[in-house]
Amino acid sequence: MRLVRQAGDERGRVGQGVLSVEGLELRALAEAVGTPVYVYSTAHVRAQYAALDAALAPVPHRIHYSVKANGNLAILALLRSLGAGVDIVSSGELVRARAVGFAGSDVVFSGVGKTREEMRAALAAGVGLLNVESEEELDTLAEVARAEGRTAPIGIRVNPEVTVDTHPYTATGSKGKKFGVPHDEVEALALRAARTKGLRLRGIAMHVGSQIVDVAPFAAGLERLLDIVRRLRAGGVTTLEVLDIGGGLGIRYRESDRPLDVAAYAAAVVPQVRSSGLFLAVEPGRFLVGNAGVLLTRVLYRKKSGGRLIAVIDAGMTDLIRPSHYQAWHEIVVDGAEGRPHVCTDVVGPICESGDFFALDRDLPALEQGDLLVVRGTGAYGFVMTSTYNARPRPPEVLVDGDRFAVVRDRELPDAMLAGEHAAPEWHAAAAAVAT
Ligand code: LLP
Nearest 5°: CA angle at 132, between 127 and 137? Predict the structure, then answer.
């Protein structure tokens, strides 16, 4: 993402002056669309996709974009145009993917808690791979598939029990986590799956966690998967086609961060995948869209409290929850603040929660009322994690392409937020509720 200012990194440029995304001045965009607003760069998504695709080129592979990172239809359509498939975790995400033309076969369906309805929807859509995460899920899926007269193409998601250096909430592949089947139980379950009517065992999968910048956990997890593949083949399984190694590729949030080195990632996984003769599936989300997005917000008021300088902005934890939920650090750049002295500032939202902040004790140019702030690295797990707490309408989303922009989601309207609620309850007898 090209934030035009001085020296930059792969996220674009930062420094002094008027801020732009690609050829578009953010100041003008904020005037036109209002704040808060999410802004995404198509060029950044394209560049990230191309970099990963090229790095994995030595083996047959597909990039299944993880819809949960940013499910905006325009982003999905963009990724589809680049050749991506998708990784989904709910039938809601399936509907989104289908709406922009993804075929069922483009879809990998992961998730620990798929309902029978979701399984039916996935089978009806012809989803390419359903990654199963427990024995009970496997039995349920087989039952649903048989009842529908279909065969479910499945993968077993392995918990490879590798240690990753990330926030505890985003580590998924370590011992005792709810995700996947413990690696030492996979063989027995997979052999059973291979013999079960209604199932076709197509793949072995993992996802070790999110925002991982070292390649070691990917390599270690993959080694576990390959060990399982060898044992299954020895046990007579001949249907395996896919190794799904998940997402989790880490990005740079601040200048001093070391992002995942894509070449090193490819070097760690390509030879192992090649030796297996299997097709490689990856499920990146953040890597493709994280630094494609910024959140624009304005300073409403400044105040002092207990010796602290506080700037109240027009966006809050309802618009971007990562700082309060994961203590995530997002760079904040102030438009047109060159030459101002720097002061230590708390940047807080308008929500009635003390945990509603974007930054505490942040070194920033002295803020003024009306200043436009650019919160970087918010293209992934930004809009998708918004809520309407405090009855706050969700912000719009804008896509930039060169010097053009398009509003790809309208700002939610307070009146529209009342839809589906019933102030005057339409009561039913208990028996009627049971019948529905
Ligand atoms: N595949 C599976 C099975 C996943 O569970 C996830 C993310 C991904 C792929 C994509 O991971 P990525 O490449 O984006 O790291 N809300 C958190 C991140 C949660 C990630 C959950 N699973 C955050 O804001 O950091």
Answer: 110
**344 is annotated as an active-site residue:** no
| Statement to judge: residues 174 and 258 lie in one domain | yes
Task: Give the pLDDT confidence of 116-139 residue by residue, as tens digits.
Answer: 999 999 999 999 999 999 999 999
For residue 269, give its domain range.
111-282
Residue 392 CA to its chain's centroid (Å)? 23
Residue 344 maps to which CATH number? 2.40.37.10
Q: The CATH number of the domain where 173 resides is what?
A: 3.20.20.10
**To test ligand 1's pocket by mutation, which of 45, 283, 321, 322 has the most ligand atoms within 8 angstroms of CB?**
283
**262 and 351 part of one domain:** no
Q: Is residue 383 classed as helix, strand or coil in its secondary structure? A: helix
Domain count, the chain: 2
The string of pLDDT tens digits covering residues 207-251 is 999 999 999 999 999 999 999 999 999 999 999 999 999 999 999
Q: Is 249 in the pocket of ligand 1 (CB under 6 A)?
A: yes
What gap in Å lies between CA 141 and CA 135, rounded to an integer?
10
